[in-house]
Amino acid sequence: MRKAEIRKYALEALRRRGLDERAIREFRIGYDPRPKDFQPSVDKLLFYERLGFFNATGYIPAGRIVLPFFEYGKPVYVQFWDWNHRDGPNFKYLNPSGWQKKPVGFDLIRRDKPVYLVEGIFDWLSMRQAGYIAVCTLGTSVNLEYQEYLKRASHIYIMFDNDQKADNPG
Asked: What is the pLDDT of residues 91-132, one digit of tens each?
Protein backbone atom coordinates (compact mmCIF):
# COMPACT_ATOMS: atom_id res chain seq x y z
CA MET A 1 0.00 0.00 0.00
CA ARG A 2 1.34 3.40 -0.92
CA LYS A 3 1.76 6.13 1.71
CA ALA A 4 -0.98 8.31 0.18
CA GLU A 5 -3.46 5.43 0.45
CA ILE A 6 -2.50 4.83 4.07
CA ARG A 7 -3.09 8.50 4.86
CA LYS A 8 -6.48 8.26 3.17
CA TYR A 9 -7.44 5.27 5.35
CA ALA A 10 -6.18 7.03 8.50
CA LEU A 11 -8.29 10.08 7.63
CA GLU A 12 -11.32 7.85 7.13
CA ALA A 13 -10.69 6.29 10.56
CA LEU A 14 -10.74 9.76 12.15
CA ARG A 15 -13.97 10.59 10.34
CA ARG A 16 -15.52 7.33 11.59
CA ARG A 17 -14.68 8.54 15.10
CA GLY A 18 -16.75 11.64 14.37
CA LEU A 19 -14.05 14.21 13.64
CA ASP A 20 -14.40 16.61 10.75
CA GLU A 21 -11.52 18.13 8.80
CA ARG A 22 -11.70 21.41 10.73
CA ALA A 23 -11.21 19.55 14.03
CA ILE A 24 -8.39 17.43 12.59
CA ARG A 25 -6.57 20.62 11.58
CA GLU A 26 -7.42 22.51 14.77
CA PHE A 27 -6.15 19.72 17.03
CA ARG A 28 -3.13 19.19 14.76
CA ILE A 29 -3.77 15.47 14.40
CA GLY A 30 -1.30 13.80 12.09
CA TYR A 31 -0.13 10.50 10.72
CA ASP A 32 3.35 8.96 10.70
CA PRO A 33 3.80 6.76 7.62
CA ARG A 34 7.25 5.49 8.57
CA PRO A 35 7.67 1.75 9.22
CA LYS A 36 8.32 0.17 12.62
CA ASP A 37 11.91 -0.61 11.57
CA PHE A 38 12.51 3.06 10.68
CA GLN A 39 16.10 4.06 11.39
CA PRO A 40 16.77 7.79 11.52
CA SER A 41 20.15 9.21 10.62
CA VAL A 42 22.72 8.99 13.39
CA ASP A 43 22.45 12.71 14.13
CA LYS A 44 18.66 12.42 14.67
CA LEU A 45 18.62 9.11 16.52
CA LEU A 46 19.45 10.68 19.90
CA PHE A 47 16.70 13.26 19.35
CA TYR A 48 14.08 10.55 18.67
CA GLU A 49 15.30 8.49 21.63
CA ARG A 50 15.04 11.50 23.97
CA LEU A 51 11.48 12.00 22.77
CA GLY A 52 10.79 8.39 23.76
CA PHE A 53 9.80 7.40 20.24
CA PHE A 54 11.75 4.12 20.32
CA ASN A 55 11.23 1.10 22.56
CA ALA A 56 12.19 -2.59 22.43
CA THR A 57 9.75 -3.21 19.56
CA GLY A 58 10.98 -0.36 17.38
CA TYR A 59 9.72 3.02 16.27
CA ILE A 60 6.55 3.71 18.31
CA PRO A 61 4.65 6.14 15.99
CA ALA A 62 5.08 3.85 12.96
CA GLY A 63 1.94 3.77 10.85
CA ARG A 64 -0.12 5.40 13.58
CA ILE A 65 -2.27 8.46 13.91
CA VAL A 66 -0.45 11.03 16.03
CA LEU A 67 -2.55 12.80 18.68
CA PRO A 68 -0.64 15.77 20.10
CA PHE A 69 -1.81 17.50 23.29
CA PHE A 70 -1.29 21.17 23.99
CA GLU A 71 -1.45 23.27 27.12
CA TYR A 72 -1.69 27.03 26.68
CA GLY A 73 -0.80 26.47 23.02
CA LYS A 74 2.41 24.53 23.71
CA PRO A 75 2.86 20.80 23.05
CA VAL A 76 3.00 18.83 26.31
CA TYR A 77 2.18 15.22 25.42
CA VAL A 78 1.44 12.90 22.52
CA GLN A 79 -0.29 9.57 21.96
CA PHE A 80 -0.13 7.27 18.97
CA TRP A 81 -3.37 5.57 17.91
CA ASP A 82 -3.15 2.16 16.25
CA TRP A 83 -6.28 2.85 14.18
CA ASN A 84 -6.00 -0.33 12.14
CA HIS A 85 -5.23 -2.63 15.14
CA ARG A 86 -2.02 -3.77 13.51
CA ASP A 87 -0.40 -4.54 16.87
CA GLY A 88 -3.45 -6.25 18.41
CA PRO A 89 -6.15 -5.12 20.84
CA ASN A 90 -3.78 -4.43 23.75
CA PHE A 91 -1.90 -1.69 21.90
CA LYS A 92 -4.72 0.63 20.84
CA TYR A 93 -2.92 3.72 22.18
CA LEU A 94 0.81 3.92 22.65
CA ASN A 95 2.64 6.52 24.67
CA PRO A 96 6.24 7.66 24.31
CA SER A 97 8.68 5.65 26.41
CA GLY A 98 9.47 7.32 29.72
CA TRP A 99 6.64 9.86 29.56
CA GLN A 100 3.99 10.06 32.25
CA LYS A 101 0.43 10.32 30.95
CA LYS A 102 -0.74 13.90 31.19
CA PRO A 103 -4.43 14.83 31.38
CA VAL A 104 -5.64 17.12 28.61
CA GLY A 105 -7.64 20.33 28.73
CA PHE A 106 -7.06 21.63 32.25
CA ASP A 107 -5.87 24.91 30.77
CA LEU A 108 -9.38 25.45 29.33
CA ILE A 109 -11.24 25.47 32.68
CA ARG A 110 -13.06 28.73 33.46
CA ARG A 111 -15.04 29.71 36.55
CA ASP A 112 -18.09 30.75 34.54
CA LYS A 113 -18.42 27.53 32.50
CA PRO A 114 -19.11 23.89 33.33
CA VAL A 115 -16.46 21.33 32.50
CA TYR A 116 -17.04 17.81 31.19
CA LEU A 117 -14.62 15.24 32.57
CA VAL A 118 -14.06 12.39 30.10
CA GLU A 119 -11.85 9.33 30.10
CA GLY A 120 -10.76 8.91 26.49
CA ILE A 121 -9.05 11.14 23.98
CA PHE A 122 -11.74 10.74 21.31
CA ASP A 123 -14.43 11.63 23.86
CA TRP A 124 -12.43 14.80 24.54
CA LEU A 125 -11.93 15.60 20.87
CA SER A 126 -15.65 15.15 20.20
CA MET A 127 -16.65 17.37 23.13
CA ARG A 128 -14.18 20.07 22.05
CA GLN A 129 -15.36 19.83 18.44
CA ALA A 130 -18.92 20.42 19.71
CA GLY A 131 -17.77 23.54 21.59
CA TYR A 132 -17.76 22.22 25.16
CA ILE A 133 -15.01 22.74 27.72
CA ALA A 134 -13.75 19.26 28.46
CA VAL A 135 -10.91 17.62 30.33
CA CYS A 136 -9.57 14.19 29.37
CA THR A 137 -8.01 12.14 32.17
CA LEU A 138 -6.61 9.38 29.89
CA GLY A 139 -8.03 6.92 32.42
CA THR A 140 -10.33 7.25 35.40
CA SER A 141 -8.05 8.72 38.03
CA VAL A 142 -7.18 12.36 38.68
CA ASN A 143 -4.26 13.19 40.95
CA LEU A 144 -4.45 15.85 43.66
CA GLU A 145 -2.73 18.51 41.55
CA TYR A 146 -5.35 18.21 38.81
CA GLN A 147 -8.20 17.99 41.31
CA GLU A 148 -7.22 21.51 42.38
CA TYR A 149 -7.59 22.71 38.77
CA LEU A 150 -11.08 21.18 38.64
CA LYS A 151 -12.16 23.34 41.58
CA ARG A 152 -12.05 26.34 39.21
CA ALA A 153 -15.02 25.05 37.19
CA SER A 154 -18.56 26.24 37.92
CA HIS A 155 -19.84 22.65 37.57
CA ILE A 156 -18.20 19.32 36.76
CA TYR A 157 -19.98 16.63 34.77
CA ILE A 158 -18.22 13.25 34.88
CA MET A 159 -18.71 11.25 31.70
CA PHE A 160 -16.49 8.19 32.07
CA ASP A 161 -16.93 5.06 29.97
CA ASN A 162 -19.32 2.44 31.29
CA ASP A 163 -16.92 -0.47 31.15
CA GLN A 164 -15.31 -3.00 33.47
CA LYS A 165 -11.74 -1.80 32.87
CA ALA A 166 -12.00 1.36 34.98
CA ASP A 167 -9.16 1.93 37.40
CA ASN A 168 -9.93 3.42 40.77
CA PRO A 169 -11.82 6.65 40.21
CA GLY A 170 -10.11 9.47 42.05
From this structure: 788 888 888 888 899 999 989 999 999 999 999 999 999 999
Structural domains of the chain, ranges and CATH numbers in brackets: 3-94 (3.90.980.10), 106-159 (no CATH)
Q: What is the dihedral of CA 32, 37, 38, 40, to 10 degrees?
A: 140
Query: Residue by residue, what is the 3-state secondary structure of the chain?
Result: CCHHHHHHHHHHHHHHCCCCHHHHHHCCCEEECCCCCCCCCHHHHHHHHHHCCEECCEECCCCEEEEEEEECCEEEEEEEECCCCCCCHHHCEECCCCCCCCCECHHHCCCCCCEEEECCHHHHHHHHHCCCCEEECCCCCCCHHHHHHHCCCCCEEEECCCCCCCCCCC
Q: Are 37 and 58 in contact (CB under 8 A)?
A: yes
Q: What is the pTM of this model?
A: 0.82
Q: Would the pLDDT of 70 be above 80?
A: yes
